[in-house]
Please model this.
Amino acid sequence: MQIAADVRALRDAAPRPPTEVRVIVRAILAAMRVTLRNLFRTPVTVHYPDKERAYPSRYRGLLALAYDKETGEEACIGCRLCEYVCPPAVIKVEMLKSEKRNYAKTFTLELYACEFCELCVQVCPTDAIVMTKSFDLSTTDRRELLLDKDKLHAIGRQFEQSWATGSKLRDMQGPPKLARAVEHAVEGPPGV
Model:
C-alpha cells in the first residue's frame, strides 16, 4: 500500500506544463491540421496579370465617356446632371454652348475618390458616361487617377462598354413595359 501511495505522490508531484502552454500547443496543432488539409487542394487564386478570370457579363468597372454612334460626336452635352447627383462630388463639368448643341468644355473625374455608385450613369440623358468592363486601376501616382475629358474618351474607345447604359438602367427601374402597355389599354393613354 505504501508503495502505491509513493508512486501516486511522485506522479502528482511531476511538473505539468502550465495551462497556457497546453492551449498554445493545441492551437498550433489545429492550425497545422488546417494547413496540411489545404496543402493538397487545387488553388482558387490566379496569378494576375498572367492569367485572368472570366468576369460576369454584368460586371461594371471604370467610368468612361462615349461618343454618339450615329454622328461620331461626343455624346456629353454638358448638362451637369452627373455632377449634381455624385455623392462624393468627384465630377466637375463646364458647359460650352454652341449653335447646334451644347458640349462639355471640361469634364474632370477624380477617380481616386469615386464610389462607383453608378448614379452618374443612370442620370445621364444622352448615355454619355458609361461603365466599362475594365477594373485595372493600380498606379503609383495618385495624379494618374485624375481623369480629364480626353482620358475618359480614350478609356471609352479602349475598353468594351458594360451592358449598363443609363437608358437601360432607367428602364429596369421603372415598371415593366408590358405592364405599362396593359395599363394604357385598360385605362386609356395618360392625360385623356
About this structure: The two ends are 110 Å apart (CA to CA). Helices lie at 2-13, 19-39, 81-85, 119-123, 149-158, 166-173, 177-187.
